[in-house]
Amino acid sequence: MSQFGMQMPGGRQSRGSAPDVYTALMFVGIVSMLVAVGLLWVAGSKVAPDGNPLKLQEEGRISLQDE
Q1: Among 4, 20, 38, 42, whose Cα sits 20 to 30 Å from the Cα of 11?
Q2: Measured between alpha carbons, how far is residue 54 from residues 47, 48, 67 in Å?
Q3: DSSP for 16-55?
Q4: Model confidence over 2-54: pLDDT tens digits?
Q5: pTM of the entire structure?
Q6: Residue 42 and residue 52: Cα distance in Å, rounded?
Q7: What is the dihedral of CA 30, 32, 38, 41, to 10 degrees?
Q8: Are 21 and 27 in contact (CB under 8 A)?
Q9: Which residues are within 8 A (CB) of 52 and not within 5 positions of it... i.e. 6 or more apart?
C-alpha cells in the first residue's frame, strides 16, 4: 500500500501513556483525603487526653484540655 501513498490506520508509532482526567481527579481526591485526615488529627489532639488523638477518654469522665 505504500506504493500508492496510503497509510494504514494505527500505523503510527504509539506514544507512551499520559495521565488522563481520571488520574488527575484521583490525585486531587487523595490529596483532599490526606488534608482531611490531618485536620481531624489536629482537632482530635485538642480534645483527647494527653494530646494523643488515638487515646480514648474514660467513660463518664470526659474533659477538655486547657490551652
Answers
A1: 20
A2: 11, 8, 19
A3: PP---HHHHHHHHHHHHHHHHHHHHHHHHHHHSGGG-TTS
A4: 555 566 666 566 667 788 899 999 999 999 999 999 999 999 888 887 888 88
A5: 0.59
A6: 10
A7: -100
A8: no
A9: 45
